Automatic annotation (TrEMBL):
Entry protein name: Uncharacterized protein
Superkingdom: Bacteria
Organism whose genome encodes this protein: Muribacter muris
Amino acid sequence: MKEIYFRLVYLEPGMFFNFNYKLNIFMTNELNKNLYIEKIPLRKGMKTDTTDYTLVLNISCHSNKFTVTGPTMYRKDQEIDFYLNIPYKKIPTIKEQAVYFLSYVELGLIDILREDAEKYAIHLAISKVKQSVTRLDDNNELLEFIED
C-alpha cells in the first residue's frame, strides 16, 4: 500500500471529534511512519491487487456500536476505502479524543487486515502514534479545539 489516510465524515449532528485537520494530518503521518501494509487481503468483489493503492479510512461518529464497512475500490485513483463507524463519546480534551479515535482505528485495521493483522504489528504502531499525540505540549497548535 502506498499510504493510509483518515477522512473525517460526520453523519449525525453534534457527533464529531473536536480536533483540527492539522492533528488529523499529524496522526496520519505518524501512522505511516510506524506502519507499512503491503496490501489488503482480497475480499468478495475485489479483483485487483491492492499493493499500489492508498488505504482511506473514512471515519464517522454515531450513537451505535463500532462497525467497519467496505471496501469501495477506486481503480482510477488507486484508493481502497473503508468506513469506520465509531460510537460517539463526549471527551473533554483533544489528546483524550485522539487516543479514543486511534483505539478504534486500531480495531478497524485489525478487522480490515483480518488474519494478516498480526504480521503488521498494528497494536505497536498505534501505540507509537498515541505516544506521539500524548507527548505534544498542551499549547501546541495541533491541539487547538474546534468549537461544536
